[in-house]
Amino acid sequence: MALERALADPAVEVVGLLTTLSEEHERISIHGVRRELLDAQVASLGLPLIAVALPTSCSNEEYKARMGATLRRCKAEGITHVVHGDIFLEDVRRYRERNLASVGLSALFPLWGEDTASLARSFVDRGYRAHVACVDTTMLDPSFSGRVFDHAFLNDLPAGVDPCGENGEFHTFVSAGPVLANPVPVRTGQSLLRDGRFQFTDLLPA
């Protein structure tokens, strides 16, 4: 939805997408989504991808070094801002702004300050489709992992869990919606608990 807002803003020219990947497993960092699903999503979005490869158990220093090198190349190519989907975590926003400022870039937060309950419902109503790829079981029951992010999912969330997962309760993969030219067919595979805390559900091309 942050991308959709940026694309609709006449003051913004969106020129690409940025994500991090595990260089060992070829999966999106934190979310655990396979590279082939990412590539299908990127193709449907019709924008070039910059993927920053990160080592297993990446330290904050290594993350900043690799991301910084990538962002400096972006700046050299004329990019001035990086769009983020953060909604209300002030410390995360300051962290992003500080890191970008260190390489001469600025941040944009199209969804900042919005009510997450309304935003989550709007996501579903506008035709977006997503699957929950990962759940932090200290905040949400592992049975939510692998579910479709729909009104039933939102109705079932316990009190205290943010409807957009803004506190890290869950992470999703978006397979359809207004910004995607074509849906990305997805099916769910096996689920696995890692580090005694994170329940991952393997999402597979359908």
Alpha-carbon distance between the termini?
24 Å
Q: How many individual β-strands?
A: 8
Estimated share of beta-strand residues? 15-25%
* Sheet of most strands: 4 strands, antiparallel
Lateral arrangement of strands in the main beta sheet: 6-5-8-7
- Write the CATH fold name of the largest domain: Rossmann fold
The run of helices and strands is: HEHEHEHEHEHEEE
CATH architecture of the largest domain: 3-Layer(aba) Sandwich
Secondary structure class reads alpha/beta
Our count of domains comes out at: 2
> C-alpha Rg, in Å?
17 Å
Overall geometric form? globular
Describe the structure.
This protein has 206 residues and is of the alpha/beta class. It has two domains: 2-108, Rossmann fold; 116-205, putative n-type atp pyrophosphatase, domain 2 (Alpha-Beta Complex). It has six helices and eight strands. The chain has helices spanning 2-8, 35-45, 60-76, 90-101, 116-125, 151-156; strands spanning 17-22, 49-54, 81-83, 106-108, 129-136, 170-176, 186-194, 198-205. It has a four-stranded antiparallel β-sheet with strand order 6-5-8-7, covered by helices on one side. The chain has a two-stranded parallel ribbon with strand order 1-2. The protein is globular. The mean pLDDT is 96.
